Amino acid sequence: MAVAPATEVSEATPEEECEPPFPPAYPLAPGYEVLAHISRGDALDVYDVWSYERFCSCIAKVIRPDRRGVERVRTRLLREGELALRMSHPHLVRAYAVFREPDPVVILETFPGLTLEDYIEMAPRRLPIVDLAYLGLHLCSAMHYLHGTGYLHLDLKPANVIEQQGIAKVIDLSLAAPPGPTTRGRGTREYLAPEQVRGETVTTATDVWGIGTTLYEAASGDAPFAPLNSQEEAAVQDHRYLQLERPAVPLRRWRRTLPAEFRTVVEACLDPEPARRPSLRELAAVLKALTRDPLRPVLDRGSDERVTAPAAAPIAG
């Protein structure tokens, strides 16, 4: 099934035509000085900055020079920063400050670890099952907390998970929104749940899909809906979404030694029908059993969605 691309069109200037990033020592915001430019995306620049108040390095997100007049970019960055300021959870990125004028600047804690995407690309071996289980528990914990604030993440993927000393931390709240109707195709193509592709109602089950795609890729080395052949590559070029056309390849095909319980629950997270996906509690219960740690409290029996995985649970069990 073909779905037209999202209506929001990038207005970014080609990289070679955009103003260069700010140089080292540039005063980006009161009390924050540029150390280095890290990356430039379609709408934002990311910097390593020095905080004179905290006497440490931090991350700063600012709008690209050529996008400063785009109101929706400004609104989205401010919303991300203000939401992150309200968050206090060991598996979610922390924000330290938000500056609104003259141009928005969001100051975040620094990320010294690798992204899960980097780890998957660089590691000589796939994560063992206990590490996969802890990774999933950390993601369940973060999503339970975020959902309790009335928001969904809506962009869970390996590039948005940082590993810091055995702890998984979810970053990038730029697409976070309350449950309800969503913009068609908003997010990262390969990781979108079917309801996101179609612009239908998003719920907590949408983030369960995101956990499923992340665990699938961490276990197998490949995203569940990455093109498998030239025909699928052509379909993607034609703006078609593979998650609407086929199920994910069974994990057993990629890695026969994975426990059946893990394969089954991850594949259930990728059910095209949101109502058939496991709840966070159901997912966490399966993952907890795979950690082989019967004393670790994970579930609050008072709610089907309440997950209380402890912050100190290491990924590398």
Automatic annotation (TrEMBL):
Coiled-coil annotation reads none
| UniProt KW Kinase keyword | yes
SUPFAM superfamilies per the UniProt record, alphabetical: Protein kinase-like (PK-like)
The UniProt annotation puts the region (Disordered) at 1-22, 298-317
Q: Which Gene3D superfamilies match?
A: Phosphorylase Kinase, domain 1 (3.30.200.20), Transferase(Phosphotransferase) domain 1 (1.10.510.10)
Tell me where in this chain the Protein kinase domain is found: 32-299
Residue spans of biased composition, Low complexity class: 1-12
Q: Where is the signal peptide?
A: none
EC number in record: 2.7.11.1
Q: What class of enzyme is it?
A: transferase
The family database entries (PANTHER family) matched by this protein are listed as: MITOGEN-ACTIVATED PROTEIN KINASE KINASE KINASE 20-RELATED (PTHR43289), SERINE_THREONINE-PROTEIN KINASE NEKL-3 (PTHR43289:SF6)
Q: What is this protein called?
A: non-specific serine/threonine protein kinase
- Tell me the organism: Planosporangium flavigriseum
